[in-house]
């Protein structure tokens, strides 16, 4: 039998003393742990007054323990939020509920709005009667703000992608399966259940682009490990509309350098492509119109002293096709007698906004003198300073030549009487003397006399020469009546 030096009468006392010491240590350790936690731990009585708070709560309220115990939330939180806290507490104290939910508070000591995840449970006595509640609150303000920022960022990204018609994807090259964003599915006009494989993507491609894109993807991108960057057309699944896409993709490689994934974006660029096509058609039409009309356009950047000429302008002026003539290059072509007049007209328009519509001569590269007409208008900044001047130039050489011929013919016609003009018109129309006589109700002899006087006055002694004058006039003779 085991013997001990401790009297049997003292054994219960020794055990009790040892148990008490152990309990005190446990309580002290527990208190230390509670005070070191980042959670706010508290106990309230049945009236909602604090009867215990850990160190974290004291820091939050900026108050000592003795200044908190026995007081309710109205002493520490803004009054407009206290009612919400009290309602939550009453659910626990009156109905015995255990609640877990967010609570928004504004602490009086800091005035800062904070969000907590609160867990509150009822405390009952041995008879099962609720005598208070125990609460543990965790500050989730930073997390909530981060979540809100992430949500706003995601919504902004989604909205931006929607506006830009930009969707994203990730392709597993080995399996051929791709995952797409909601926006990309909308761009393609497909449902989530659509077959998201390479075959499914290929089926979406416009029939005339399909072979090209298949070769590009497998030969260029996968075969030569190049970045995906291509424009192509698709037939949108939901309405069969043909849409232009611009696809971008970056390859991801395994440790052996083999491509295993590709992630990127696909953007609907239909409106841009339509605009580009329309612009090309407009530019073609403009070039043709300018060529037919002998017209060219020009623009002068007055800030950077740079001139831009249309293709037809350089052709009309006789410059090489790829040359970008300067202002001095242009002035060098202007006839010396007209050069200063052109400079003065330009300066007057820029300084006084006078009308710019001027005719002048140029001497082209072949030494020929040609007449030009230039019309322009300057654009000005908010201070009235000219910044850009745009205009058109037209070759009016033939018009000027016609004017000279018309003046010559007018001089000849002014020498003739009214009856002689009538006879001349019918002669040029191809009528014989007999027919002219019948139409004018005069004798054949009189017609012959009129023709003799016409030849004498004009110095033109043959019908052929008269016909040449008529051809040069281009129908002006129709106005001699």
Brief summary of the model shown:
This protein has four domains: 108 residues, Beta-Lactamase; 111 residues, Beta-Lactamase (2-Layer Sandwich), CATH 3.30.450; 104 residues, Beta-Lactamase, CATH 3.30.450; 80 residues, Arc Repressor Mutant, subunit A.
Could you name the key traits of this structure?
single chain, 481 residues, alpha+beta, Beta-Lactamase, 4 domains, five-stranded antiparallel beta sheet, 17 helices, 47% helix, 25% strand, disordered C terminus
Structure report:
- With 481 residues, this protein is α+β, with helices and mostly antiparallel strands.
- It has 4 domains: 34-141, PAS domain (Beta-Lactamase, 2-Layer Sandwich); 158-268, Beta-Lactamase, CATH 3.30.450; 292-395, PAS domain (Beta-Lactamase), CATH 3.30.450; 400-479, Orthogonal Bundle (Arc Repressor Mutant, subunit A).
- It has helices at residues 11-36, 55-61, 65-68, 79-95, 141-164, 182-188, 198-204, 207-223, 270-293, 311-317, 327-333, 336-352, 397-414, 418-428, 433-440, 444-458, 463-473, and strands at residues 40-45, 50-53, 99-106, 113-124, 130-139, 166-172, 177-180, 228-235, 242-253, 259-268, 295-301, 306-309, 356-363, 369-380, 386-395.
- The strands form 3 sheets. A 5-stranded antiparallel beta sheet has the order 2-1-5-4-3, sandwiched between helices. A 5-stranded antiparallel beta sheet has the order 7-6-10-9-8, sandwiched between helices. A 5-stranded antiparallel beta sheet has the order 12-11-15-14-13, with helices on both faces.
- A hairpin with a 4-residue loop joins strand 11 and strand 12 (306-309).
- Helix 15 (433-440) packs across helix 16 (444-458).
- Mean pLDDT is 84; it is low at 1-18 and 473-481.
